[in-house]
Queue: 2 jobs
Job 1
Amino acid sequence: MSGSARASIFTSLLAATAAFAGETTPDPGRVATLRLEAGIAQTPSVYLVLDPPRRVLEIKARGTVLDTIDLRGIEVVTRQPLLAERPTRPVTVPAVWRIVGEPADDHRELIAPVELRPMPKEEEDEESDGAGTTTPAPAGPTPTPTPAPEPEATYRAHLDGGWDLLICEQLPPRGVVERFAAAVRDGWQRLRGEGGDDPPAIALAMAAEDGRRLHHLLRSGTSILVAAGAP
Amino acid sequence: MSVEPDRRELFSALPAPRARRRGLVVVLSLFGLFGLALGAALLVARSGRPQHGAPFVTETALTPDEEDPVRVAKRAAQATTALDRVRPRGNYLVVDSYRNRLRLYEDGALKHEAVCSTGTGTILRDPRNGREWIFDTPIGERVIERKVKNPVWAKPDWAFIEEGYLPPSNPEERFDPYSLGDYALYLGNGYIIHGTLFQTLLGRRVTHGCIRLGDKDLELIYRNVRIGTRVYLY
């Protein structure tokens, strides 16, 4: 009997036993999520699992949790006039979103020598002389480099399907005064020709440190599985 | 004997009509200015489109077939089996390139954690042709392809260009027997888990994409992983 046939019989028996024993069957939403994950985990890529009920973002590979980020909140963020709020449409889950536009990499440092010169003869001689001794020839950066610039804690990545993913420390304010102040600020920027209309975004609020460490994972093609159902 | 206050004294304590009028004008002016400022703010706010947060509402789109209890249980078992098949077994490594930590796991249980150094994220540009290298530690799953004791580093072009030198035409000039330390675990595409001459820089993003470890940690990792061991980098 083949392995797949045995697996099929096993799962059928398992399902039948569970149904017969009156056990609580798994949440259909969770099972649909599991099935989607089983597909993503066939590739060697790192992927993210957003679990809204648990307010957790997991960094995973091959079905194994590598790290977890606790979320302060999840919201759908849109740009709207102050007095004309439109209801946002619900998000269908489970779903797999893919990053199609990476967040900006402005923090990267560029090393661009103007010209290259030949290796000096003296160094070559010193190296060959020292080859038999314990004098090492250090490679790579100098021992006291300047700290690498950090990425921003608040940024956007574009998702397929028209949504953006907004990583931020704070969700938009809910209070009347704060919202009015935000409207005045945005209106003033627009009057000066600086304002812009961002696409609607799924905002994930998290600690600034978590936002920074997530930045390099949001590369084009990275999958984000949005879980459904109760944990 | 009672002393009655002089009525003229009492009236002189009150502000004169002109002073009262001036005070009234100041108050009304302040109200007017406030009203104007509020009106201007309202006009400006009308043209604004601030970010508005709405609750994250989800809807689960499942077909009746996907909600059938027997099929749900069967599919759950199938998905679990599929995930179990791809999950790492035995020893595997996990590298957190933001926090600069390398962890050794055995069947999901943490066995050892070490401070490491990972890629700077810097971009190097070759002035001759504009070719660029990005010094990132890769992300995703890799396997240990090779294990070498007393490794010799064949320096690639970028190691010379970064120092402002032309890459040598003689391959002999590329060999460096010191920089990689006592052991090297090759991950493919030039990425290596190796030792370092700069132990004080462990825990910082200072490499060209390789993972540097301290001497003791490197020896422990070298002895506990075999060729084919999976490495997860994120």
Job 2
Amino acid sequence: MKKTFSYALAAVMTLTLLLSGCGSSNKDNAAQNNTPANTSGSGANASNEDIIKKHPGGQMIISPQLIGYQEAEIEITWQPNPSQSLEATSPARVDYLTKKMKAWIEEHPNVKIKPISTSNNSTDNMAKLQLKLAEGTAPDVAAVDSFMMPSVAEYAQPLNDAMAAKGISIDDYFPFMLSTMQPDGEGGDILSDWYTTDVRALYYRKDLISAPPATVDELISTAKKLQEDNPGMTGLIYVAGRNEGAVNNHLGIYWSQGFPLLNDDNSIAFQDGEAKTAMLNFLSFFENTVKEGVTPQRVVEFDKESNMFGDLTTDKYGMFIASSSAVPQIKEIVGADTFEQKWGIAELPVIHAGDAASSSAGGWTNVVFATDKQKAELAADFVLSLYSDDAAAGEWCEIGGFLPTRRSVYDNTPAFAEDAYAKQFASYLDQAQSRPPVSEYTALSSELQVAIGEIVTGASTAEKALENIIKKVGK
Amino acid sequence: MLQTAPNPKKGVVSRLAQGPVYWIAPLILVLLVTFVYPTFEVIRYSFTDASLTGKDYSYTFSSFINILSDSQVYQTLWTTFVFVFFSVVGQTVLGLAIALAIVKGEELKLRGTVFVRVVTLLAWAIPGVIIGVIWKIFLNESESGILTSMLHAVGITNVTFLTSAGSALVCTIIANIWRGTAQSMILSYSGLKTISRDVLEAADIDGASSWQRLIHVTLPSISSVLSINVILNIINTFNTFDMVMSLTSGGPGNSTEVLALTAYNQIFVHMNLGSGSAYATILLLINGLMAALYFWFLRRSGEDA
């Protein structure tokens, strides 16, 4: 029996080593991955151009499984954000992407794009992408949540040449994006292209509220008055379900007090002193809105913004906090005219009157991982042509309901230049911040999500919740 | 007459050919690759500080030490045990009740017993994530929520389902009972079908009431099946995370966070492979214990038969 067990254990160990070995060899293969046209030296460019333009014959396919000609010699793997790919549920997005992809393949017939299908769970997708990067099996180019980009930066290939070729200047982007796109600062390599963004704001019924509240106290008193004047109306709703939105949508309220979430060494910045008071003020926002009766406990049901939208069509809500992407979505539900008549937007309220408002901005970046020079160039050109260059950015953001990431796109695209909401959002982006792109923030955010849920449901007070967070994340 | 010495090599091969080795070798290989290897890796990672994002890690007991020193873990364990206990009781009792009703219906040759079986099994066929979404829609507390509007219609207002800690756990248990009753019903039904009619008729002749017949004849006759049923329900419920994830995400606060969800969050949200694997290993130990009990009952039921 002992002998049999020993043999079984030996077999498992051998298999483990063998399989681990397979993982390592993949990595080596990825590093040595070459295309047929990967040549260097003089005259290579002309030859590369010829190979790219060579028509492989057959029929062009634009599908979620393959983009290009089946027989094309150069293959690029692409992991898009599913909702921004041919798998999107919006026909307008699919039509736009199909048009753009067709045009790109016509220019590059000997290149085929192999999209990698993923789920809609971006947290899962990003975790799996990081695993692939560590194993050396990452796609040539991928859409990466801007918040996660710094964690994959060590594998990212420079986009400087590709962006220059498209006439895209780094100076055109909003300030908060620069540290993510160009981690080494001015003059350093551009490691990602931030191609869509959003920003958080207070939405208010402009037909009922003459001037939007600027502070949290004003917000509560305005909501109370709304409820008194309009029986059956709920003053304010927001996302408080256990998800990132519960934290991210409201972080601007904390940031407006001038304190960061994390110190330079990634320890939490609000363990004591004024920063601790600032965090207490932030958590008290949730406590007070519920305690004062302007926000129902039911907001813990909203773990996504879209969960609020059904309620918002009932005309029984005075204000809500959401990202800029709520505008096109609610317009689609209630109609653009109705939305524009009723809903105005304002900056997130601040704790102390006179403080500068702040907001959290997010969005998606494209990152090239291909180590093969030609593949990297082609991959960059492909995604920039789809989403980012002057011929694409405005139309893509308009169709997708995103905010453009470059100032010039706001000026040059009528849909944004003439849109009052877009202009306001653009001004908020100037003051916006992005969440700290480190794992310590993820741990902190999880605890904040739990705390917000407990505060809103009355299971904890803001003070107790804060002490609990410090105890757990501060160690 | 010359005698040829037996070829020892040929002997081994032919002995192996006569045995089950060749037959079960493919299965062993598949099990090694798809079960033993991943399990081994999870246990190995639980003794590391590995992150999903980093390449380097070292061997340490820190994951287990951190887990055991975190008071939240005991809260999660308590929530998990409450969730498992009431889910298993509910699933087993309801499954048995439906199975008894179906068997009785068949005895009385009532129409619709097959329909009842199919309807009950439907819940089993639906993925956990979808069940979570269905119950979330059902328990929505807005005026358009299905249950809320029904309660409003009869004058009941201000009822909370998923928006307070206590009621959220109760609702999660109810949703899980709904999900797991089908398996219990199938097992109980198969057990009930094995009871000899003679035994039941003898109890009738002796003047036993329906209740006495259930307690003193039916249940003892299917006790082994019920034990196995309970253990399978315990294992399934301990592993439940998909339904909880889509129904409550573990909230509000931590009120519905179960051990399997914590393991998932540690790995895929916090990218903490070492810690998540340690949680998974604890879950594996609990399930291993349950599996051992399962086989013990299985063997005992075999001996009884």
